[in-house]
Amino acid sequence: MNSTHKTASTNIFDLGKYPTNFINIESKTCCSFNHKVSPFSPPKPLLICSPTQAGDFPVLVLLHGYLLCNSFYSQLIHHIASHGFIVVAPQLYTVAGPDTQGEIEATAKIIDWLSEGLAHFLPPQVNPDLKKLGLAGHSRGGKVAFAVASRRSNPMTIEVSAVIGIDPVDGMDKGSQTPPPVLTYSPRSFDLGGAGALVIGSGLGEVKRNPLFPPCAPKGVNHEDFYNECRKPAYYFVAKDQGHLDMLDDDTKGIRGKATFCLCKNGKCREPMRRFVGGAVVAFLKGYVEGDTSELVKLREGHYEMLPVVLQRVEYIV
């Protein structure tokens, strides 16, 4: 465990009051020589960030984007956890084709594992409150989050109270969605079992970085389409002048990490989008897993004087 400390703040866009630990957990399929796997090991490797202070804390499962590493989200994960949440970020795959069915099934298994396995890896007297569970995903992970929450083919034993799409994407264009498709292009068609929905979009996601590559969040399969299919309660924020990968860590290492600076149209720096996403997720989770909508109302009504980003769209149905 690596302990992380911070200055206490009541501002959702700053780090919160809780000191946290990062925890890496190998999966049951780990095959390293002489590596001992716990009988409580999860179906996929996990990166967890947990408060270290004793208490009962809501849980957020965060799904990574296409061909990305869960570790690329460590600063965002830390931000959310520091406000009193246990964040569980699986590594769903290292190499993947176009079909997301395996990711959908793996995520459902991870959520079911939480009740039997998660507590065994947390700091002493830190308890996961699985009656307060959120599910979030970035890019392709956002598509998977909505697919899992709609339970089209993946019954789970734990109810999800909040579903969050962070610049979600369902394929390269409307005519070639990533199978199985999630978007139906029928307004308010998502059945999330009463869970609240939050969709965060990037203003630059649908803009090409160069002629050789398509935009990372193409119009017709992006955040706007996901929000249009959400039933109430649902919230929608689009950050102007911010890119599809701007919520990742400032320094993403390795070949994949370097590529995150090259493939998508980016903003000037990542910190503003990352702080906004972290704060918006915290406000939404407080509202829909903890029952305190005060921060969410402030955000939707424009009562924050110093937002990290400029918002070009704010919509909601409640």
Strand order of the largest sheet: 1-2-3-5-4-6-7-8-9-10
Full CATH superfamily name = Alpha/Beta hydrolase fold, catalytic domain
- Secondary-structure element order, N to C: EEEEHEHEHEEHEHHHE
The chain-level structural class is alpha/beta
Residues in β-strands, percent: 15-25%
Helix content: 10-25%
The radius of gyration is 18 Å
Largest sheet: 10 strands, mixed
Task: Assign an overall shape.
Answer: globular
CATH structural class: Alpha Beta
E-strand count: 10
Per DSSP, the total helix count is 7
- Low-pLDDT residue spans: none
Number of domains: 1
Gross CATH architecture:
3-Layer(aba) Sandwich
Rounded mean pLDDT score: 93
End-to-end Cα distance, whole Å, is 40 Å
CATH topology: Rossmann fold
